[in-house]
Amino acid sequence: MPVAYHMFTYTLKVSARIWWNSQKACIIFNYEDLKAKCRSHFSQQKKFIKTHLAVHNIKQKEGESTRAFVSRYTDDTLQILGLHKDQRMYGFVHGLRTRNLVEFLSTDLPTTYKGLMEKTYPCIEAKEVATNRTPTDQREGFNKSRKNPS
């Protein structure tokens, strides 16, 4: 049994090893007891369910591109069950940091989230083109050929 005990401790990863080392001596009596304590400590089976109020906490981060925020916002709001379409749209506009885009979207706000995205993406693409940050553009090769005309 002592060999199995020592071999068991070598198989543990960081968080499990920290938990194991924090246990008092003789507190675990057998395998069933170990299994029950591990499950109660490490079990994350309950999935946290976000409510519709979580939408108002999704904000564009400092330095985060608008395109990245749109992607993150869409992913986060898809996890919220029963979210009303108006809350999803208003939460998006509320979370934006780009003042010009907020003003543009606020005038004649679309009635659907899809419509809101169809109105948002041309603005994002126009800004990327204006600042030469188009993700699909091959600017490096283009600039090299212009620098070395032959």
Fold topology:
Elements: H1 2-10, H2 14-22, H3 31-42, H4 66-78, H5 85-95, H6 99-106, H7 113-130, H8 139-147
- In terms of quaternary structure, the protein is single chain
Compute the number of structural domains.
2
Gross morphology: elongated
Tally of helical segments: 8
Beginning-to-end CA distance, first to last residue: 78 Å
The structural class is mainly alpha
Order of helices and strands: HHHHHHHH
The proportion of residues in beta strands is under 5%
Low-confidence stretches: 137-147
The tally of beta strands, per DSSP, is 0
C-alpha Rg (nearest Å): 26 Å
Round the mean pLDDT to the nearest integer and report it: 79
Largest sheet, described in full?
A: none
Helix amount: 55-70%
